[in-house]
Structures are given as structure tokens and as C-alpha cells.
Amino acid sequence: MNNIEKACRALIGADALLIGASNGLSIAEGYHLFANNDMFQQQFGDFQRQYGIKSVLEGCFFDYPDEDARKSFVNRLIQYWIKDYHPSQVMKDLLGVVDDKDYFILTTNADTHLELSGFEPTRVFEIEGTFFQLGRQISFEDKTLRLRNFLARYHNRRLVLLELGVGRNNRLIKQPLMQWAASEPLATYITLNFASELYIPQTIASKSIGLEGDIANTLRQLRERLLSLKS
Questions:
Q1: Does domain 3-30+88-230 have CATH number 3.40.50.300?
Q2: Is the overall model pTM greater than 0.85, yes or no?
Q3: Could you write out the DSSP letters of every residue in 75-121?
Q4: Helix (H, G, I), strand (E, B), or coil: what is residue 43?
Q5: Residues 92-150 pLDDT 10s
Q6: Where are the domains of the chain?
Q7: Do the Cβ atoms of 218 and 6 come closer than 8 Å?
């Protein structure tokens, strides 16, 4: 049985999914926070020429000469990355993988693409905020409580921890997911990433599945295989 098959069996048998998503998921959609690529040049080339900004991430936290310049960058980012956004095949495949399972999502992605693609906003926790909240004081009390309630509800049950594009050294998402995988006796840890970032510690290797490669392709394979197993 290959790893796609193993992952599908775990997903079918799961009582719920706790999903962790980082910038690797956004990159699979074509949105690269760190890149000085063609999209960045088309959308923000004038900011690079004027201020030397080389990526969206740098633009979000750049020390602009005045508030109007900062707002101009943020407003354009919201327009291009949120208001003009249409759900990608990546997100459609992820929705298909989740299907009718209960779920909760932890993400460091600020683009709100999960909610815009059909995931329930109350079950998505952007732990670093969203582009709408840049520069503002925000409270995470409600989402933190929802996460705790979710984890309590599925304690000692068949919980799949599905990790999407989270770097091997990530402390905000990967570290807690691995800790929950270790502490929950019936948990299965499934991680999707390129080989250089795919990491499973030996302590949870027996309950883990690593799916190496492009996340877009892997999610498509998972969705298609799940459909065939359920038919």
C-alpha cells in the first residue's frame, strides 16, 4: 500500500481533521509571499522602483515615509490577493479531501483564501492575523477557545493532523501539530511538502505519513482516490 492509499484510509476513518497550513499552500495556489516574481512585478513593481521593496512580505512591514503610502500598498494587496481572488483548484481539492468531516484549521496565511473558498470562518484560525488586520491590535481569544474545545472534543478519538506546506523548522504550526500527534494515541499525522521541507520526527514515525512533492498534485491525487474509494 503506497502512502497516498495509506493517507486516504486514515482520512476516511477519521473522526475529525486538524489542518495546519502555511505559505507552502499559498505557493501551490500561485501566491508567493516571499518572491520577487512576475506577479510581484506586475502588481507592485512601482513600489519596488520607488522604495526598493522586493516581496509582498517586505511590503507589508516596510517603514514607509507616511501612512498614506503604507495604506496604498495594503489596499492594493487586499484588492489583488483577496477581492480579485477566485477559488483555485488547490482549494477545491482540499475541500474535497475534507468532505463532510468536522475540522479546524490553523494557518499563518493572511490571505483569507480558505474562507473565500468555502471553509467556515469560525473554524479557521489565522494565528498571525490577516491582511485586513495589518498594523492593528487583534484578539485571538475566541479562536483560541474554539481550538481548545475542538481538541477536547476529539481527545482519544481518531484525529488526523493534516499539514500543508509547513516548513520543517516552523514553530507556530508544525511544532504543536507534532506534539498533538505524539500525545493523542489514535492520531495520524499526514504531512505534505517538498522533500527538502518534509520532516517527521522518529517519536511519531509509526503514526505518520509523509507525502512528498508538489502540494497541488498531492491534494488532487488524494481527492481523486478518496472519491474512488467512496464510490
A1: no
A2: yes
A3: HHHHIIIIIT----HHHHHHHHHHTTSEEEEEE---S-HHHHTT--G
A4: helix
A5: 999 999 999 999 999 999 999 999 999 999 999 999 999 999 878 888 999 999 999 99
A6: 3-30+88-230, 38-83
A7: no
